[in-house]
Amino acid sequence: MPLPLSHPALSAADPELADLVGAEERLQADTLRLIPSENYVSAAVLEATGTVLQNKYSEGYAGRRYYEGQQNIDRVETLAVERAKAVFGVEHANVQPYSGSPANLAAYLAFARPGDTVLGMSLPMGGHLTHGWGVSATGTWFHGVQYGVHADTGLIDFDQVRDLARKERPKIIFCGGTAVPRTIDFAAFGEIAREVDAVLVADIAHIAGLIAGGAHPSPVPHADVISTTTHKTLRGPRGAMLMSRATHAKALDKAVFPGLQGGPHNHTTAAIAVALHEAAAPAFRDYAHAVVANAKALAEALLARGFDLVSGGTDNHLVLIDLTGKDVPGKVAAKALDRAGIVVNYNTVPFDPRKPFDPSGIRIGTPSLTSRGLGTDLMPQVAEWIERGVTAAKADDEAALAAVRGEVAELMAHYPAPGLATA
Ligand code: DSN
Question: Which residues are recorded with the post-translational modification N6-(pyridoxal phosphate)lysine (predicted)?
Answer without folding.
Answer: 232
